[in-house]
Every structure is written in C-alpha cells, then in structure tokens.
C-alpha cells in the first residue's frame, strides 16, 4: 500500500462555517423536501468516487451513470447539497469570472474567450434542459439584470453594453432608468440596467435534489454524513476512508469547491480562496410594498458595485438579498453582516426597510488567482480530478464542469468548449499561510469598498 501525498487542509474560517453535522438553515431548506440518504458504512467500491454532493459532484455522478454506464459513488460530509449548492441565491447567470469581458478577451484571445462564454451558456442551457426533462417547476424570471447603482455606474454600464455586444452573441438589452422601472424595479439606487436575457432564477436546492434523484435512478450511489478523512493509493486504485466505511475507486473527483476536503491531494492545496457570501430573505411583502418600489420582475438582479448586492423577488413575494463580506465567519461577525445587509437593503429599497427578516444564512464561494474556474486531472493518469473556482457563479458552471469531468473520465472526445484552455490546468498557488491570504482578501475588499464609495 502506497500512501499518496495527502494534506490536512486547515479550515480558513471560524469552525461555524464547517459544521457539517448541522443542517443548513436556509429559506430553500424551509420550502424544499429532500430525500433521506444513508451514511457510508463498511466496504464499498465504484469506478468513480466523488467527494462532495453539490452541483459538481451530483452532475458528475448523473452523467457518469446515465450517459456512460459508469458506476459512481458520491459521499458528502453533510446532508445532500450541504455546501454552497444548497445555500446560494439561485441565479442562473454568467460569466464565472472576476475579469471584465474585455480583460477576458485580452488575456485569452478571441477563440478561447469565445469558447469560455459559449461554455458558460451551455451551462445555463444544461440547467434549463435538466429542469424540463425532470419536470422541475423551479425556474422564475427570464435572464438577469445588472443594475447601475449610481449615475457614474450608468455611464460605465453603457460601455459594458458595448463590450457585451462586441464580444458575446448572447441577447442583451440596455434599459434606461425609466424603461427598467417599467419592467424591473425602481428604488433609490436605480439608474438603468443591462438585461442579459439567458438564464434566470431557480430554487437551487430543488435543482440539487433533482440531480440527486436522477443520479440515483440511473444507478449512482450517494451517501451523506460521511466525511472523507483520508485518501491513499493501492495497486487497484484509490481508497477513501470515512468514519464508518471505505470506498475504493479507480478515479476520484474532488467536488468540494470552497470547502476543501481534509484529505485532498497536495496538488490541490492553496489553489482557491474561499470568500463568505451572506443572504437574508424577508417575510412575504404586501402588494403595496412592492408597488411603492415599482418592483415587478422575478428575474435575478445585481448591482454594479465591486462588492455587489444581489437580490431577487421570490414567487411567494419575499425579497432575497445578498452580498459578500466578513473575514472571520464567527457568529458575531455573522450578526454584523446581517445588520449590514439590512442597511444595504433599506438604502436600495426604502419601502422595505421595516420588512421582517425570516431567514439569514451564509456560505463559501471560491476565487482563484487566475480569475477563472479550473477543472481537470491533477496529472495525467493520476485518476484524481477537480473542478472549482467559479467566483460565486456556480449554478451554470458547476453542473457543466461536473458533466465535462464525467465525459473526460469516460474518455469522450472533448468538444471545443470542453477543451477551452481557460478552464485547463490548476491556477497558480496562493501564498502559504491563511493570514497572508486573508490579508490579500482584506485589501481587495477595502479597495472595492473605496471604489464603490467613490461612484457618484
Ligand atoms: C451565499 C452564496 C450565494 C451564491 N449565489 C450564487 C448564485 O446566485 N448563482 C450562482 O451561479 N452561484 C452562486 N453561488 C455559488 C454556487 O453556489 C457554488 O459555486 C456552487 O454551488 C458550488 O458547487 P459545488 O458542487 O462545486 O460545491 P458545493 O456545493 O460547495 O459542495 C461541496 C461539498 O463538499 C462537501 N465536502 C467538503 N469536505 C468533504 C469531505 N472531507 N468529505 C466529503 N464531503 C466533503 C461539502 O459538505 C459540500 O456539500 C453562491 C454561493 C454562496 C455561498
């Protein structure tokens, strides 16, 4: 038995953020019944072991089992979709990068950047097609709005529109403040909007449960409350250890994104930075309340801040409102972020300032030094696969990357979008030491906050 290079990943934030034994308390969990799944007990074997039952892992399992007849076994440390997949805002938007489109095209060239955008759109369609084929009634709104939060942001948005028109074939429209108030919303921070017409809003937990049910139906296995604590290599393949069981497989997919497994291969260490994103959901608001902000659309929206606010009207007349922030993950700082979200909500929509908040939760998104997502095999023939780094844009990206990994493992010929160099290879390592990485994040947040304050 040869031990593979293993690493013990130290948690980046307060332990609150990693309580795998505690069910996530989100609005989605409140409205979405989920399946009960067993833990991994005893000896198991599969062709492919998948660590993490979120969009990536579940999509990989579904496509392996359904499209390639390959036996897949998923294990998660918490409940099904315990991580970001069950906690996100459900925006099926694009693109998954912190680069502007012009930067993306400058850095990667026309072909690769166009393929990247095409892949992102394929991800959106994958979500739509899956919902259609499974009869999931979980989509709301058409496309998403990028809303200018200040007059200077409106000027920038007009340039952004020109860039979208130049580089992307996706349908998009620029709307003045009046035009957007007619179909979107009003409010004190509304100076016009850019409408990207693909995608929309989904219930992300219902989507994850749908992926899981389909994967199980096609013969995949899924085990919850089964944290992988060690990984080693034997002649026949990799062996994953959990508290009560062992799983042998020729291939292992690390689908843990911003919640890196304790026992991931050393090659994956320091490749991503987790950032905290926070969401509140109000009680249902009255028709008068919505009318006083001229708020009509169910399409997701986000503003033009660098530290953006994202929000959507939910079908049961609640408002979901979110933003990134906080460098600790502690309970006190969680409370501080909840208050900060309330203030931001009241600033944007004064009529909602007294709205009772019924749900508040947080989760981790992943960012990379390359500013784009990454997927592949740690080295050719290692049988150790990864996909991560979608910059809080995982609803379309991660199911697509899960499917792509499934196809790569099955030996399918890659399509041009799957072979797109933007995704290939591991991003450069981050500096060692969590404190240094946190310092980088702190500096980035401070810079963004300053830029946002300067926008007039
Ligand atoms: C608050 C918030 C809002 C967001 N909003 C949006 C949005 O509106 N639109 C959008 O596109 N994206 C959004 N995102 C990002 C999106 O949710 C993620 O990119 C996506 O869900 C990642 O999917 P995943 O399957 O790769 O990882 P995850 O869903 O995070 O799954 C990783 C899983 O790995 C498991 N795991 C970790 N360690 C182990 C171990 N040792 N053994 C076994 N299992 C382990 C975890 O329990 C977890 O379930 C948001 C994220 C957050 C946190």
Automatic annotation (TrEMBL):
<keyword id="KW-0560">Oxidoreductase</keyword>
<dbReference type="GO" id="GO:0016491">
    <property type="term" value="F:oxidoreductase activity"/>
</dbReference>
<dbReference type="GO" id="GO:0005737">
    <property type="term" value="C:cytoplasm"/>
</dbReference>
<dbReference type="Pfam" id="PF01266">
    <property type="entry name" value="DAO"/>
</dbReference>
<dbReference type="InterPro" id="IPR036188">
    <property type="entry name" value="FAD/NAD-bd_sf"/>
</dbReference>
<protein>
    <submittedName>
        <fullName>FAD-dependent oxidoreductase</fullName>
    </submittedName>
</protein>
<feature type="domain" description="FAD dependent oxidoreductase">
    <location>
        <begin position="47"/>
        <end position="407"/>
    </location>
</feature>
<dbReference type="InterPro" id="IPR006076">
    <property type="entry name" value="FAD-dep_OxRdtase"/>
</dbReference>
